[in-house]
Amino acid sequence: MTDAIVVYITASTEEEAVKIAGVLVSEKLAACVNIVKGIRSIYSWQGKIEDEPEALMIVKTGHHLFEALQKKVKELHAYTVPEIIALPIIAGSEDYLSWLKDATS
After folding, report:
1. Is the pLDDT score of 1 beyond 70?
2. Rounded mean pLDDT of 41-59?
3. Buried-exposed string 26-48: b where 16+ CB fall within 10 A, e elsewhere
4. What is the residue range of 62's domain?
5. Residue 44 falls inside a structural domain
């Protein structure tokens, strides 16, 4: 098993996602962030069903950086409770995983 993880983070706008992604990469908390604009999220919040446009960040990083990444996202994010969920990368191209490790060191 590798230390590499993928973190999903939603943002209210593409601009907010770009701002957060830039900080994560420049501070080496992430090697790469893909931004998928134009997603639609339907969720329960404070007793109501919400239906909102959002942007999704797909963040590639190391598990050992998750706590620092989460703290930084919470500092920058407009949401009270931002989605920040991590999934393990169980396998991948050795070249890519090596680059990911180097880019976050």
Report:
1. no
2. 97
3. eeebbbbbebeeeeeeeeeeeee
4. 4-98
5. yes
